[in-house]
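pinging the channel bc i need a second pair of eyes. not urgent but kinda urgent?? the chain im working w is below, pasted from the shared doc
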Amino acid sequence: MKRTARISAALTAALLWFAAAAWAAPAKNIILFIGDGMHLQHEIAASNYLFGADYSLVWHGFPYKNYVTTWDTSTYNLYSIMQGKPTFDPDNFNPIYGYNPEKAGTEPSPMSEDTMERLKYLFPDYSKKTPPLLRKGPATDSASAGTAISTGTKTEHTRIAWDFEGSENGKLKSISEIMRETNGASIGVVSTVPFSHATPATFSSHNKGRNNFYTGFKNYAGFGIADEILTATRPDVVIGGGHPSHNNPKWETTKGYISKGLYESSVSSGEYIFVERRAGEDGAGLLSAAATKAATERKKLFGLFGGADGSFEHPIPRDEPGAPAIDRATDENPLLRDVVLSALEILSSNENGFFLLAEQGDIDWANHANNFSWMIGAMWDLNEAVRAAVDFIDRPDNDLDWENTLLIVTADHANSLMRLNPEKKLAPGDLPEQKCVAALCEYPGDEVFYSTSGHTNELVSVYAKGAGVEEFHKYEGSWYPGTRLIDNTHVFKTMKDAAVGSE
């Protein structure tokens, strides 16, 4: 009797443990979309152009919506020094020195008013006489912002999944690596910008400098980002820009995103099915065929596309009031939705699940140029990609559903302090008159305003749906009591909690 009781008690305990583990880690699959440089006004502008309403993008219908702080240690230190406070210490810091809700608001514009106090906080030397190209404020870069999301650790400018100067920790383990090691999950990293660029790199490599694109780049003596991605981390899917025929045909070591040797070994790799941009051929078709081949042969996929600046040529919106339409700049590059669907075809075959990072990087580049039209095309590209992922999860012919898959849409940081003029609201399909001179664009009709050509410390949005989405709630207000705000490091913690459970 006692032995039977002990066995029964042990079995009950084991069942409870397994049940708790299953509850704690419900997300077998995670799909993370990052709109690089995207903030709420960009979302509203794209939604109005496409649908004639402020909040009609795909992710606006997700059940979880919140705002995120994005500061890094470099930003923190600039603000703290101005106030005579100590610089960042990971064991003793005050989040209010990274972002102050009392001065900058608990919601982004237009939910919160742009007061002069707010502008002075974002740009300490703010003056209307200072042109946007010269107006800068403390703000993260994509490397440190991506690192916060991918590893849950605050670091300084240029670091790629690498701790800040003075720390002895060095490499930081990313959510993709954690899911692979803990769950046996597959990894996918895809982007419309070069695959070795900052944001995708933070999920697939580790480096002290974001511009160390490959071994030997600018006489860099260490291990380059592209080399680590393709020969060490070796994600199951890598798709992005940086094709040398368009970006670096002379194989100069002062530019480009992949070395000649690494490119040649990728072409002949036995591990990866390699597909690249080809003159006169449809990039989406080439990529789809390669993905099917990789899935059939159970191999990995490396897709290398891009144009002269390394990135995919951006979609182009038409200025046709009442009839919004987007044209592809070229058929030789796929759209982000094509990239995401090809990645999902391969990753979804792993019964242990997967992690997929999908970045639309042109939103950031467009806003650096204050280029509204370019931004709208990039936002459409992101919206279509998220729509494709949602449809893929809803398909009945795969093992994905909202009970085992978590989908998140967010931004790494804001860019440009772009504002729409509420007194001159644009109709669907309508673009403002846009005059671009040198590096920046201007808008003589005053439908759109830009305050800078750089990143800002504004809040960005986060939207989520699916397995483990409730994990977000436990971080709300934890750094900023009395608010619902979360930090970008909490996005990592939420993904980790949802995928492998709380510690």
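so The longest strand covers residues 186-194. and The radius of gyration is 23 Å. — does that match what u expected or am i reading it wrong
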